[in-house]
Design brief:
The protein is of the alpha+beta class and 133 residues long. Helix content is 20%, strand content 42%. An eight-stranded mixed sheet has the order 2-3-4-1-5-8-7-6.
Length: 133
């Protein structure tokens, strides 16, 4: 089973300020969009496929995802990309982990496009480490 580091999730209070800091350091930081749970992100990309996701609460409501982002600053999660999330989940179970069922995830880009993936949370809280395909 092929797997690669996909991205690091970093909680920030202010996306625009965080994007400006990364851009000032010479790294391209562009709005990625909004997730259905109410978070918004900026993606910091380098020359390879892996990236840093700066994430902040985009709405005032309360839910486990937004509450986790509001209570954290700095790196809070990471994701590994796999070709087959169910195969990866089975391997995790065989290794003694108790991953959540794989579920769809998405975000709407600033241009209005929808980017979709499948995610399998390994930890018990929002933004614990994940695998995705």
């Amino acid at each position: 089973m092929a797997a690669r580091f996909d991205h690091l999730v970093v909680a920030v209070e202010d996306l625009d300020a965080a994007a400006a800091r990364w851009s000032a350091a010479g790294l391209r930081a562009e709005r990625g969009g909004a997730h259905p749970v109410g978070t918004e992100n900026v993606l910091v990309r380098g020359p390879g496929p892996a990236y840093v996701e700066l994430i902040a609460a985009g709405r005032d409501e309360a839910n486990p995802w937004l509450d986790r982002i509001r209570s954290a600053r700095g790196p809070i999660s990471w994701a590994v990309a796999v070709d087959d999330v169910e195969e990866a989940r089975a391997a995790l179970v065989a290794a003694g982990f108790d991953p959540e069922p794989a579920v769809p995830g998405s975000r709407r880009t600033p241009e209005g496009d929808v980017v979709e993936w499948i995610v399998c949370d390994i930890g018990s809280q929002p933004y614990d480490w994940t695998c995705r395909s």
